[in-house]
Amino acid sequence: MGTRHQIYVIANVLGRYRIVAVYHLQSLYPPEAVHLAWTLLQHIKQHAGPLEKELRCLREGRYTKNDAEYPCPFLGAVLFQRVQDFYGPHEGTYPERVVDNNPWMQDNNSGYTVIDATDSFSPAYCFWGWDGDYGFRAGDPIDPEGYALRYYNSPPWEPFEYLKKEVQDAILDIQSEPFISSRRTLDEAWENWSPTLEEMNVEAPSQDAREFIKALESVIESGSSENAQQMADALSSTPGVVEGLRRTLRQKRLPKCCDPIIVKAFIISQDLSNSNELDLSWMQLSAAQVLKVVRAVLQDESFKISSLDISGYSDVTEGTLSDIFRLPKAGEIKRLYLFGCQESRYARQDWDGGGGGSV
To answer: 90, 111, 188, 347: most buried by Cβ count inside 10 Å?
Structure first.
């Protein structure tokens, strides 16, 4: 019997579980798969921050029924790194495309590792098999001890003590991790689709947000920089202002006359968030507006910004990044997120975050 094995990473995207990454291993026995699964869970937790950002891109509606073959490249790289560290370079190990991937049709002999990365800080796991042999019900989640001891053995099952010491330790350690106990979760993931953002019933804006949006539309209609400045000066520090701006910027770009409102609203947002991260991701801002907001927040002595997220800006250029890095206090930014940015390659090559930063 062969030992071909696949690792599936699934996540809840817009209310439904689906596949977000797949990795094929040409040869991996179940006991070693348990050991590898435990190390993968630890590796995912170590990279939870960036992984949460990448999964958020999917939840923002950027993962449709016919999306990219590899929708989570960072997650795929994390998976590849750990598998290669564990398994060593091998021509039979490679990522698989996510689109139209059906585990029921896989070339598989030794079962599957499944990891739920919905909460990357606390990922869940199970093992899975579709053939129903060895006393397992086909399609149900399999626990680590049963999988390691029974997948290749007929009754009487091999004693736990016969396993390698590192596999015994991995079984004991992994049992403290969250377990995927629901077959429904797996069945939903194997269907492998999610609704688009447009198909979702988006919650209606709050009353404060509606009032902000109405006032903003009046400023846009007037085209007056003076009216925009007056509105900015009058903004109160409330969640409605933040909600209203973010809802608007998810849908359209605002004209230059609205820049004072944009800057003031993000100052309010930063104050209310009490966070050391400035999150501008997936907003319809121009490169110049991104620079204005970053400059204003960095200059505000109330904030200590160590992380910047400008994911989703196709028109942020090398020049924009250079301008950001030259700003006073930009050296305090230790982490920069650029998911969905065409210029991320430049940033990885040429930025060190003022010493010790990461992209």
So the answer is: 111
